[in-house]
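Final report, section 2: Outcomes. Of the targets proposed, Retinoid isomerohydrolase RPE65 b is the one most frequently requested by collaborating groups, and we therefore present its record in full.
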Amino acid sequence: MTFVEHPAAGYRKIFETVEELNEPIPAEVTGVMPSWLGGSLLRMGPGLFEVGDEPFYHLFDGQALMHKFDLKSGQVTYYRKFIRTDAYVRAMTENRVVISEFGTAAYPDPCKNIFSRFFTYFRGIEVTDNCLVNIYPIGEDFYAVTETNYITKVDPDSLETLSKVDLCKYLSVNGVTAHPHVDADGAVYNIGNCFGKNMSLAYNIVKIPPAQKDKSDPIEKSQVVVQLPSSERLKPSYMHSFGMTDNYFVFVEQPVKINLLKFLSSWSITGATYMDCFESNDSMGTWFHLATKDPAGYVSSHKFRTSAFNLFHHINTYEDEGFIVVDLCAWKGHDFVYNYLYLANLKQEWEEVKKAAMRAPQPEVRRYVLPLDIHREEQGRNLVSLSYTTATAVLHRDGTIWLEPEVLYSCPRQAFEFPQINYSLCRGKKYSFAYGLGLNHFIPDRIVKLNVQTKETWVWQEEECYPSEPLFVPTPGAAEEDAGVLLSIVVKPGAERPGFLLVLDAMTLTELARAEVSTIIPNCHKCD
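The predicted structure is given below as C-alpha cells.
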C-alpha cells in the first residue's frame, strides 16, 4: 500500500482547541443518505488543549468534548459540548491545570502558602475524571469514560453532564478499560486491576447487569466475575481492551507496566504524571490469560506466552473447533507507543513526524490461536490444526505454550487501528470483515476495510482529509455481514466547511453522502 504525504501539515488542526456550540447547527448534505439511517452519532474526544497559558502535553490530556450528529429524515445537525467534569470545571474556574492528566502535571496553586500546599499532599492522589475516551450505555443510561475509576453520566439528547460515578464504591477495581463488551442481553463486562491476596496486584473481570425491571441502577448490582493473577506483584500491565467469546474471556498481559510504588510516591512530588509511572519489562514477553465465563474461573493450566508487543485494541475473539482465535492490533516490542503521542510530536512538520514514527514500535494486525485441549505428550509440536491459519502454538517442556501469530495486515508505519466489526452479528463469532482507521506515521488519513480471511483491503482516502474511527451501522434485516454503512467524522482544514460526517457503503467503501458543517471538529478518537 502506498502512503500519502502531508507536507502542508494540515493535521495540526485536529489537535487545536475549539469552542462548544450554543445550539445545534445545520449541516449541508451532498449525496444520498440511506432512508433507514436515523438517530444520533455520539463521539468523544479532546477539545481543549490548553488552559490559560498552560498547555496539555499529551494526546490523551485534552478536556473531554462530546460531539453529536443528529440524522432525521435526511436532515443533519451537529452539536458539541464540553463535559463538566471536575477536571474541566476546576480548570476553567482557576484558569490553570488543576488535576494531573495522562501526560500533563498539575502544579500546586502558586497563591497558596507553603503550609496549605504541604497539606494537599496528604489528601491522597487526585485521580482525573476527564472522560475523553469513549461513551457507552449501561442499562438505560449513557456514560462517558476514560480509564480511571470515574465515569460520567450524560444526557445523549442535550449533552448535559448529569453525575459523576465512582466505580470503587461498587467494585473492587482501581479503574476499568474504556472498551467494555456488551452481551446480547445488555450486560456489560469490563476488566480492571485490583489488589488481590497478600497486597499483590490482580485483574478483575467485572459484570454490570442489564437494565433492571424495577428501574434501579444496574451499577449498584455490579459484581466481580473472575480474578486473574498478575505476572508481577506490584506492577500491573497497562490494559485498554480484552477479548470475550460466548464461553471465555481472554486477557493479554503486555510488557508495558504501571510501577505502582512510583505511582503512589510520585504524587507527593510535584510534576509527576501517569506517563511517568509507566515502564517496560524487556524480558517477560507477552502473556495470554484465559478464564471461563459460566461458571467463571481462571484457567491456570494454560500458560500462553509470546514475544513482546503493545496492545490497545482487540478486533474480535471467537471459538472454533477447540481453539480460541484472537485477532488484535499489535505494536511490536516493549517500548510504550504512548511515548510517541505527545502533542509536540504530532504537531511537528511532516518530515519530523515521519522521523519520530521511524523510532516508534511498528504496527501489525495479528491473529493468535489458543488451543484449549492440551496433552503432555504433544510437546514440541504445533497444536493448531485449523486449516485456515498459519498461527502456531507449541507446548514447551516447562508447560508453557509458545504462540506465533499469523499476520493479517502489515505495512511499515501504516497502522490499522481503532478497529470495528459488525458487533451485534459477529462478536465472539467467526467473521470476515474488520474496519479501521488508517494511521500514517500516527496521523489518521484513511479508512480501511480488511477481510481477515483473505487479507484483501479496501481504502477510502481524500486529499488533506483526516477521518476519525469509523463506526459500522448494519442495514436493518440484512443477512450479509458487511451490509451497512460506515460513519466517520472527517476534518478537511482550509475548506469552506471544514468538518463533515462521512457516510460510506461498508461493502465497497464508496461514498454515499456527506454532511458538512462550517466549523472545524477536533480529533475524535473513540466512540461506541
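Residues 350-359 form the longest helix (10 residues).
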